[in-house]
Each structure stands twice: as structure tokens, then as C-alpha cells.
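Suppose a colleague, Dr. K., hands you the sequence of a protein chain of 231 amino acids and asks what its three-dimensional shape might be. Before reaching for any lab equipment, you can write down a predicted structure in C-alpha cell form. Begin with the sequence itself:
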Amino acid sequence: MSEQIELDFSTVMFSTIHDVKNSLVVAQGSLADLSSALSDNEDAHKSLALLQYEIERTNHNLVRMLVLYKLNQQFFSPHIEEYEIDDFTDELIIHNMPYSEAKQVTLRKQCELKPDDVWYFDRDLLSSMINSVINNALRYAKSNIVVSATLKDERLVIGVEDDGEGYPEHFVEDWKDRGCAGFDYQSQSTGLGLYFAEKVAKAHVQGDVQGDVLLGKSELLGGAKFTVVLP
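The predicted structure, expressed as C-alpha cells, is then:
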């Protein structure tokens, strides 16, 4: 009986999250229309952009929970196709530009790539993960965020760096050991976002090599640096 109750609760939770996510999509569309209508009002436009940013954060959290649920139920597999890396990173910048402008943070890309360089990955999964990372960086950056992409040692390396306070040293050292368990009061992190990011990275496999996520200090901006490496 308890197993049936647990199953029913999981199903209800999944359905509810999916329904709320759909409602947020409708709300985002309405806000975008309202923002266009009030484009001449700078204060209103900025307030709406910040509201859209918070909705975006909530949407990322819901998507993360849906994917993790599917992974846990073992009925999820990545949809890997070929994409131009430069176009992909451009889309990341364009998507997050309204939020960065509202927060008065400069968001730019730095790519050591040729225009036609391509890679194989799940576009939806990777964009959801990196958009969430950029979204989080906007909370802590003082004035600058850089998104980088390069091909190194037959790997695709995408980084997000900011000029905030950076990750606490102890957090960088033990976050993989903690997984998604526990709450870090110093960093205000549940670890769930990084757990999701690592799951997305490891879902990309080439032979016996899996993708990976790395945390560290940004040499460019002095704050946090998040890196995803895909085979």
C-alpha cells in the first residue's frame, strides 16, 4: 500500500510540475507582449524584465525537476544531434540579454572557434543547463559575465564566468561528494542545480568517456567559473 501511495504521489507531483511549467510559459508570453507595449517606459520595461528573470529562474527549476524525475524513472535518454557551436552560444547570449540588461550586467561571449565548428549534443538539455547557470550567475555578478566555448583535446568546453565573490573554496572541493544532499548555508545552495548539470553532462557519452562539470575560480573575471566538458 505504501509503495502505491508513493507512486501516486510521484505521478501527481510530476503532473503538477508540468502544469505549472505550462502556466509559466503563458505568463512569459504575456509579459513579453506587455514589455513591448511599454517599451517607451524605461522603468516599467526594467521592472518587467526583472519579473521575467524570476519567472525564468522558476521555469529552470521546474525543467530540472522534470528531467531528474525522468532520469530516476529510467525513461529518459538524450537526443543527440549535430549543431554549430557558434550559433548555439549566440542563442544563449540573446536569450539572457534582456535579464542582464535589466540587472545592468554586461553579458558577452568569448569563443575560440571557426564559424562552422560543430559538435554533437542534446540541444534542449544543454541549453536548459547553461541558461540556468547564466541565470544563477546574474544573481552574483557585479558587472560582467562571459560565456566561452572552445574545442580542446577532442572535447567541447563551454564555460560561464562572472566577477562576483566566487564559489566558497570548501564548496568547490566537496560538491561532487555531497551530490544533491544537504544545504550549504554559506553559498545558499541546495546542490540540486549542480547535480542536474552533472547528470546532463554525463548523459553525453562517446565510447567509454562521459561528459563532466568543473567548478573553479575565473582567471578572467576573478569570480566563479562553471565549466561543462563534452566528449
